[in-house]
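User: quick one, fold this
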Amino acid sequence: MFALADSDLERRILGAGDGPASFNAELSRHGGRVVSVDPMYQFSASAIRSRVQRVYPGLLAQVAQKPGNYQWTTFKNPSHLGSIRMSAMNAFLEDFDAGRDAGRYIDASLPSLPFDDDEFDLAVCSHLLFAYSEQVGVDQHIAALLELSRVATEVRVYPLLAEDGKVSSHLPVVMRTLADAGINAEMAKVPYQFQKGATEMLRLIK
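Assistant:
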């Protein structure tokens, strides 16, 4: 979903709003340098597991109710999606305690991150900004993206569609504001699609 090349995986990477995802665990296991931030990380592994198990059936049911909104290629059906995502969560949980001790999982959230300017080469953010456009206002989007651009020389955000399946109404204002701040903002194709129409990411370069 971020069109990552092998060379990207050798960079210093920040994952913003990563939640119980396995990217950090998998990349770290292969020698990558990655830090994930999420307010969820203030809790213990057992508390995170309980929370996910409590809310996940409802999220999966939402997908199952509208299967036509999704492209069933990477995942065969809602059940397959659920098993893959639970496997990813288990990989995260197995890594969480050691990763938090090593400083790879940090309790923090946008738009205020505890990092120096340009501490990372690449920041990635998935299924948070733009995806929740109704819940997160345009000013909050701008503040979050400016902060990501402060701590990383490149930022990639996916998807650009809101929950209704349409391109977020925040996107034009966000891109103009970032351009005025001297940040090059462009939409780029990605070789991934689950939500139908979600074929592009936002790429920011200072």
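User: anything notable?
Assistant: The mean pLDDT is 96.
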